Amino acid sequence: MTRSIFVTCHSSLTNPLTYLQFFIHVLGHADWSHFLGNMVYILLLGPILEEKYGWKRILQVMLITAFITGVINYLLFLNIAICGVSGICFAFIILSSFTGVKEKEIPLTFIIVSVLFFGQQIYEGIAYDDNISNLTHIVGGIVGGVSGYLLNKHEPMNNTFSSHR
User: Fold this and answer.
1) What is the 3 state secondary structure string of 37-52?
2) Closest listed residue to residue 87, CA positions, set 22, 46, 142, 137
3) Per-residue tens of pLDDT for the chain, all 165 residues
4) What pairs with residue 82 in β-bridges?
5) What span, in angstroms and rounded, lies between the C-alpha atoms of 44 and 1?
6) What are the b/e assignments for 121-159, b being 16+ CB within 10 Å?
7) Phi/psi class of residue 102: alpha, beta or left (left: φ > 0; alpha: ψ in -120 to 50)?
8) What are the start-end ranges of the E strands in 58-154?
9) By C-alpha distance, which of 101, 88, 112 is closest to 149?
10) CA-to-CA distance for 76 and 9, rounded, in angstroms?
11) Model pTM?
12) What is the rounded CA–CA span in Å between residue 76 and residue 82?
């Protein structure tokens, strides 16, 4: 079932399943090891992010990440199908570096994690032919970074007292 439904592939745009697959490819995994590896990140980072941003915002980040990674794979890789939630995992990794910041700040942890993460993904994407979609990881990280910045930009400051009366 995973290979026929829970993947993105270059199928006809007249097929309604194509559009659904832009979102549901994150539910399929190559094997149990792939699934468990991704679930560890989701279960570790998800509650922290949900507490900070709320379940609706986290669901939005997940849906946006799934859609963008699905569409990019569809447009750029005609003969390659992807599955798995790793794009969302990497969105969560980068987004989590924003959890302790105040409005309009870019945290040092974001910069360090981003340099290490993007550097690793670019290197592995060039150096290895390992059937892993490093571009999906990079796109997920970008969605997480943009989301973290935007969500913190619009979050009210935690000042309970004001000096102005």
Assistant:
1) HHHHHHHHHHHHHHHH
2) 137
3) 666 677 787 788 898 988 998 998 888 888 898 899 999 999 999 999 999 999 999 999 999 999 999 999 999 888 888 888 999 999 999 999 888 777 667 788 888 988 998 898 889 888 887 777 888 999 999 999 999 989 887 655 444 333 444
4) 8
5) 28
6) beeebeeeeeebbbbbbbbbbbbbbebbbebbeeeeeee
7) beta
8) none
9) 101
10) 11
11) 0.83
12) 12
What does the block give as tokens for 41?
Answer: 């990140």
Q: How far apart are CA 49 and CA 58, in angstroms?
A: 7
Please give the structure tokens belonging to residue 118. Answer: 């993007």
Please measure the distance between the N-terminal and C-terminal CA atoms of the chain and give it in whole angstroms: 63
Residue 67, both tokens? 């859609």
- Asked if 25 contacts 6 with a C-beta cutoff of 8 angstroms, the reply is yes
Pick from 17, 144, 44: nearest CA to 91: 144
Rounded alpha-carbon distances, angstroms, from residue 131 to 28, 83, 122, 137, 151: 15, 11, 14, 13, 33
Q: Which amino acid is at 122?
A: I
